[in-house]
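Have a close read of the entry that follows and walk me through the local backbone shapes. See right below:
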Amino acid sequence: MTPRHPDHQIDPQFLTRWSPRAFSAAPLQAAEMLRLLEAARWAPSASNLQPARFAWGLRGDTAFEAILTALVPFNQDWAKSAAGLIVVASKPHSEKNGAEVANVWHGFDAGAAWMSLALQAQSMGLIAHAMGGFDSAALAAAVRLPAGYTLHAVVAVGSQGAAESLPEALRAREMPNGRRTLAEVAAHGVVPV
């Protein structure tokens, strides 16, 4: 594994979490999937509206196959080996005084839920890889997405496998990547360009 070096001291969980694509044949039990989703459920949420929604399947079941089929071919090639697939969506509106109002933070909250899920996976010795490469219409149909809801990502989860199990073009990419420097993304009093 390529070492990652933070600009400032942080908890190691943030450096050791990454998004591998190589999955082993080890199955995921429904109880383990529910632990991942339970962590996502407890993510921070603006006004406690909890807009994040999830649909999931385990390798070999019809829900998994329906989600897998909606992925772009590049992602299907490696995600088919995952033990589970999770669709991350959100409800972009809420009810206030009997009327539907926009929840402009729904995507932000769904992102927080994904990160909670990813860190829970890591704490369980699992890996999680979120992807945006999917056919939106096909995925919406596969998970019966309610009208007006937003799809964000599909997350592949399971136990890490050997890089050699991946298509040859992906093997060289199967390592943690770096990040921009802190000075590139954060500044006192101004947003960096």
In short: The longest helix spans residues 106-123. Residues 118 and 161 are 17 Å apart (CA to CA).
